[in-house]
Amino acid sequence: MSDLQTSGNLEKETEEQPKKKVQAPRWIAAFLGILFMECALAAALLLSMTYAAFRLRLSAEMIRAGIVVVYALPCLVGGFLVRWLKLEPSLLWGVGAGAAYYGVLLAVSAAATGQMMSGWEIPILCVASALAGLFLRKKRRIERKSASIE
């Protein structure tokens, strides 16, 4: 009978304890946020480039240059965000940000056209621009206190 009483007490104790929420590690949320920001920036750039192409009747060379900007600028911002969020090791996260953005581009391209992108230029551009974003920083001004002559 004592076994029944103790098992009943254990059930009450476990029911009274608050359930802890399972939280993802900080780096998962940070990396997914960076990837979301890269994709949102790319979408905004594509929309503005589409508007400019039709409104201003841009040439094919200008459109190609705009596409390179759409590949490079979101990765540059992603690398900057990796540094700003202080993800360590930052070089690995920078490469990951560029590679993940290229993976999204690859998936969207394959879904839209049914063909895979070929060549190494675009993934190298994405990774290199994300790494360049790691090294962007504001120059610190050294304030020199001038000696006041009285």
Characterise the protein shown here.
The N and C termini lie far apart (94 Å). By secondary structure, the protein is mainly alpha-helical. It is 73% helix and 0% strand. The radius of gyration is 25 Å and the shape is globular. The chain has five helices and no strands. Helix 2 (26-56) runs antiparallel to helix 3 (60-84), helix 3 (60-84) packs across helix 5 and helix 4 (90-113) packs antiparallel against helix 5 (121-134). The chain has helices spanning 2-16, 26-56, 60-84, 90-113, 121-134.
Quick description:
The protein has helices at 2-16, 26-56, 60-84, 90-113, 121-134. With 150 residues, it is an all-alpha fold.
Structural class: mainly alpha
Number of strands: 0
For the largest beta-sheet, the strand count, sense and barrel status come to: none
Mean of all residue-level pLDDT scores = 83
Number of helices, counting only DSSP H or I runs of 4 residues or more: 5
Topology:
Layout: H1 2-16, H2 26-56, H3 60-84, H4 90-113, H5 121-134
Helix pairs in contact: 2-3, 2-4, 3-4, 3-5, 4-5
Labels describing this entry:
mainly alpha
